[in-house]
Amino acid sequence: MIEREEPRIAAFLRVTGPEARAQAEAADRRLASGNGAAGPLTGIPLAVKDVLSVHGVETTAGSQILRGYRPPFDATAIARLREAGAVFLGMTNCDEFAMGSSTENSGYFPTRNPHDPSRVPGGSSGGSAAAVAAGEAVYGLGTDTGGSIRQPAALCGVVGMKPTYGRVSRYGLIAFASSLDQIGPFTTTVRDAALVLQAISGLDPRDATCADRPVDLLTGLEEGVEGLRLGVPREYFQVEGMEPGVKAAVERALLLLERNGAELVEVSLPHTDYGLAAYYIIAPAECSSNLARFDAVKYGARDEDARTLLDTYLRTRRRGFGTEVRRRVMLGTYALSAGYYDAYYLKAQKVRTLIAQDFARAFERCDAIVSATSPTVAFPIGAKVDDPLAMYLNDVLTLGGNLAGVPGISLPCGTSDGLPVGLQVLGPQWGDATVLRVARAYEAARDA
Ligand code: GLN
Predict the structure, then answer these.
(1) Ligand 1, closest atom to CA 283?
(2) Is there an atom of ligand 1 within 6 Å of 181 CB?
(3) Tens digits of per-residue pLDDT, 41-74?
């Protein structure tokens, strides 16, 4: 499948064929031994976003600056899947350091949408989403800082879930914005998403933000939506650039949920309009700090023409980072600098609190929130590359979930102009099981 689809889709930066074959043989032995060592993920092949450290496999965060870097360890999520007998197919393309919504900011090449190769797959985890949509991998891992799992899942017509912040260890994830980043799965079904998330979740002493809370995502999965209250946030249906076809598909999905016993209640997320501005201060501020470690000394590429230490830093970073990464490092450094910190960063953090409070209040009135995932379907490659603000609008409906730390899933809910539309389900903090249950109920009703 990879050999057949890659010339058309370009989802992978690197395919690790020989390793995958060895892992598959080991999984076969484990399955054949019949001693109970095999689990549901044993022998199942997956695609990994190029931001998750895989022992010995070149991992570059989609950036030239990390070309040649082979982590000497596994990220916790990877280690857990390895334990479970997973087969790792390779590293998938993404926007550089996960900054973007289309994979066009990759330091290598853009990935193409399997539903229409002239269009983007979404991003930043577009490679993993496209790999699953094209049948190149059974499942994939991505990361979501402002929407980078849910938005590409929506645009590629697959399931993608961002868990509650603190559910999955970030150890070994090449950080973008540490207070927002979460790792999560791409799958073709909601049950598979629950299985993968179950396997990678849970306490890890190597990530102090990873919570010691029980993880049971499968027990209530088939309980349906009868008696659940689903919040419909007014503001999420009025965002700039919402395509009528997307809105219509989502409204049909809401009616279907209602017909299956859910009660739809109108809720309000009054600070929605400020989400994008707050996110684009906080995320760049954190990335400017996180990316300071790429100094040409510790990892990856180094500009060999530089003659002084300072020159080495400057030349390596100028060549190694792409335009969007440099834009964000500059924005973030500025927002954090003395004299501007209070006006920008502190202000953005206050807005973040207001947004978290919006969600907390909304969840007093409902069990989960339902909306579109992205205001648009997949757009043509090149359509938004010269307009960062238009690109940023892709995430208006997802980034609130990251600012508030709540879980969210996107699953396919029909088409608009022949292209997939995503339905987003958001839940309260630690309500990952509810999110999956609502998504599963919609999926069952849709397929009935
Ligand atoms: N598109 C958003 C950004 O560029 C979100 C990225 C993400 O979730 N990693 O920051």
Answers:
(1) 10
(2) no
(3) 999 999 999 999 999 999 999 999 999 999 999 9
